[in-house]
Fold:
Amino acid sequence: MRPRLINPEEEFQRYRRRMEIAGVMVVVMLLGLFSRFVWLQVIQYDRYHALAENNRIALVPAPPSRGVIYDRMGTVLAHNYSAYTLEVTPSKAGNLDELMDGLAQIVTIEAGDRKRFRKLLAESKNFESIPLRNQLSEEEAARFAVNRYRFPGVEVKARMFRQYPFGESFAHVVGYIGRIGERDVARLEAEGLAANYKGSDHIGKLGVEASYEKWLHGRTGIEKVETDSGGRAVRVLARTEPVSGHNLWLHLDSRLQQVAERVFGDYRGALVALDPRNGGVLALVSKPGFDPNLFVDGIDAATWKDLNDAFERPLINRALRGVYPPGSTIKPFMALAGLELGVRKPGDTIVDPGYFSLPGSSHRYRDWKKDGHGVVDLKKSITVSCDTYYYGLAREMGIERMAAFLGQFGFGQKSGVDLDGELAGLLPTPEWKQRRFKRPWWPGETVIAGIGQGYMLTSPMQLAVAAMALANDGVLYKPQLVRAWQDPESGRIHYAAPQVMGKIPLSPRNLQLVKEAMIDVMRPGGTAAGAGAGAPYLIAGKTGTAQVKSIQQGSSYDARRTAAHHRDHALFIAYAPADNPKIALAVMVENGGHGGSTAAPIARKVMDYWLLGKLPTLSVSEEGAAETAEEAEDSGPTDDTASPLALPEDSQ
Amino acid sequence: MIARLLKRLFAHLDGPLMGLLALLLLVSAATVFSASSGNPDKMLAHLANMGIALGALLLMSHTPPQRLMQFALPVYVLGLLLLLGVALFGVVVNGSRRWLDLGVTRIQPSELMRLAVPMMLAWYFHYKQATLSAKDFFIAGALLILPVGFIAKQPDLGTTLLITASGFYVLYLAGLSWKVLAGGGVALAAALPLAWSNLLHDYQRQRVLTLIDPTSDPLGAGYHIIQATIAVGSGGMAGKGWMQGTQTHLDFLPERSTDFIFAVYSEEFGLVGNLVLLLLYGAIVGRGLWLAASAPSLFGRLLAGAIVLTFFTYAFVNMGMVSGILPVVGVPLPLVSYGGTSMLTVLTGFGILMSMATHKKLVKT
Structure:
């Protein structure tokens, strides 16, 4: 191309033009930016404002303090205390093994802690913080604080812990809380309660802790927190205070409960004591127990397996879930049935040869006394617990009428006590047998049902309810554990009203007769004369013996102990004082043999304590001897040295 | 006496432009102070950087255009040699080979080329102005592509684009034919898919993709854009107030005192503040172009014009990137972002601009 000479003036003009075009471009681009800013900052402002607020504000749940559980005297059965825990957020912590090794040099971390941590880790989501060590001492917490920078994702937190000061004694009643599991989450979500459990780690799993979970938990508060990009809280912007759970007062008397527990000695079994005036549960014992504190922070697998597989089955609440044939304890109710249905008159007598046979059959249904009781009327049939009398009575009454009458006393149905997991037992009928076994009812099955054997199953709770109904002349209260609760907001204490479950229409004369017979049971000539001896108050009782069935014993039979575990279960029901009942109870002693010799004495000691404030004397060899001696200076439940939290007795 | 001395010292400064630059530096000081949450060390370093850069501006304003013209070729050649050195012996930092280790200190030769390239091209056109032909544009193009090629290889996308832009502005102002411009535009559009698959690195491609849909990678590459856009948008009309930006002070904004400082400013001063900033940049560019046009030599006009337009390009690319209309390219907001090198380069450029405009009598046209 040929170079051409340029006119400087022309060149300058072109430069100016190009400059102007550039200038216009600059203005256009500035306008472009400006319109973008208008879009973001004016038109889309709400959206970005919300996003920025979302970035910065986190809603942190403030978990409420769980309600405290007291006994009737204000003794603490379950409470909270604050302690430090060492918690790890796995997603931020890196290599967990190295982390734990490093931490172990600063605070004590035992093998069990690691194991439990692993278990919780497997159950949780990665971004949750998981406790590694609970109850750090002040010194350990301080030592960690100094070394904190070395452990990202590890924090010391102050947390509330649940504790059961009586350990084993109330495990089956008060129960325990445990870490919220998958099933709990599903249930909470189904009930729409999940939001209230944000920030809560624990939930009631058993006993009152479970059945009153909604009351005990309280309402979770919300803290509006400003956080930085790392999620660390910078400051609290607003706070909705959590509302503590309701404090509960039980009808239970902790000292009565402990007395009852102690008088069982090494026996397995259950005791339920009710206040016949309102259905309040005064004591509910299932032996053996277990330490509920083990469950609070997650029990390790080995300990749980030991407890669950133990031959004694400590985890089973025998008072509600242990169902056994009622044996002879059914007889007072059978006698009442005979009188009320007109099958027997008070003066009707039989001659007991020691056995009963159905017409046209040579099979002998034996009395417990080989040679029989001779001439037996209704009263004597209860006092000496004559089997032959009831074989005949049952046959004449028929199984259907028997079931209908006994059903009024609560047999074969749940008592409705405010605890979860109760079993209904069984009140058999031909219809039931057909349904269950596809077989017809045999007449012989009616005969043995008359003495509480065969298919019939009752729990100690049901027996206690039936005894209460007798004591109340037919009035059935629903058994209640919770006596009062405190509204956390107003501080006011509300009392649970007694709930009448039913009034059985009974003729006073018939009742009088059966009650007198039951009083005679405790007198010389009666089956529990030994246990009744020397009582300064009237007791009405009835002994019973239930033949052992393999179903109660579960699968893990120990060959060496089989003999002992073939022994019958001892049963006893009673109420006292018979002329003004203040306590109705049922005792079941597994493999205890005869009711009169093992179950009745236990009941007597419990009644003595409740009515007289008398502490049981135990043989020196027994474990609790030293304790008892100390406590002997303590007076009975009637005195008024209870803590200020005790509820006034008559404040309904 | 002192007054006369000062008058001589400031003789080559342009009053209105200096006033506008001072305002911008004031904005910068306030924003960096907020972005660093009032960290006094950082603030002091920032003010020191400003001082040094203003010193360079003063120095350059006194340097006559002929002297600069003499420097144009040697500096360009030196820059090229250094770039070659980087390609052969450079130190790799963060995956890019940008630095040359001189034992005493490390230098980044591409920074030198930001001014050396437009200077070289302006010098070339000045030198050839009497016999300008299409061939000269080819040669000038080659002089531009050579260093740009090295820098693109490092890789350094931001610097590559901006040096290309500065060279292009010289070509444009020198009178590159509109046909060539149009043809170049078409060729560029055609080459884009090719460049996409062959020239761009994965992370660069990712940045572009992220721009289109930031939410596709909210914790990775998209995080910067999302958080910056939230900061800008949540600033609203009047802003959250100085030192009150939640995105800034709660650590949600990355790189908040350097490349993303505009988000801090925008969050705290809102649309009103942004308008002020845009007007400030517009005024600086306007005054700069006016001064450039008044330069007596072609060298001066071309170089000064390119400096001003490049300055604007920096500002536009940065604000576009922070507000989410351009991909994330590592470009600071000129004269506002924290960082000595950028400050020094930009104010040196303005020093040259003022020198070009004020040394009238010394160059014949």
In short: The CA atoms of residues 615 and 633 of chain A lie 10 Å apart. Residues 549-560, 619-646, 648-652 of chain A have pLDDT under 50 and may be disordered. The radius of gyration of chain A is 36 Å.
